[in-house]
Specification:
- The protein contains two helices and seven strands; from the N terminus they run ααβββββββ.
- The protein has helices at residues 3-7, 11-33, and strands at 44-45, 48-49, 61-66, 69-74, 77-82, 105-112, 118-126.
- The protein is 21% helix and 29% strand.
- It has a three-stranded antiparallel beta sheet, with no helix packed on it. Strands 1-2 form a two-stranded antiparallel ribbon.
- The model has no long low-confidence stretch (mean pLDDT 76).
């Protein structure tokens, strides 16, 4: 079988054209599928997050308090914490859903369910006069 007659062009030219077309489609698909500025999620695993930043929060019971230093006892053990001068310490009290209103400043804590959503484990409502802006 004569490929030149069957293709209508020289087989080498056809192969080069096919390879160039394939390469163009790969590059175009790669560029179309890429995000301009993807958001890098911070996934907490133990003491570090995926970008190697240390976890900045702790939860537990105060086991020691001395001036601007407290020790927080949690399941992992004691964690010493130095408080900044003028740090605000707030006491949490339970709220009902009906007490939360649009415009309230909240902190939401939860875990990632790996489906682009979070399972909420707690919501802290901060009074408007305590919000640092």
């Amino acid at each position: 079988m004569n490929l030149t007659r069957w293709l209508g062009i020289d087989p080498i030219i056809f192969a080069a054209f096919a390879l160039a077309t394939f390469g163009l489609l790969v590059v175009a698909g790669w560029q179309i599928g890429a995000e301009d500025d993807p958001i890098r999620p911070r996934v907490f695993r133990g003491d570090i997050v995926t970008d190697d930043a240390r976890v900045a929060d702790s939860a537990g019971t105060i086991s020691e308090a001395d001036g601007d230093r407290v020790v927080i006892q949690d399941a992992a053990g004691p964690t010493p914490v130095s408080l900044a001068p003028g740090a605000i310490i707030q006491t949490l009290s339970p709220e009902e859903v009906a007490d939360v209103e649009p415009g309230d400043w909240v902190l939401v804590g939860g875990i990632d369910d790996n489906v682009n959503a979070y399972i909420v484990q707690g919501i802290v409502v901060v009074s408007d006069d305590q919000v640092l802006r």
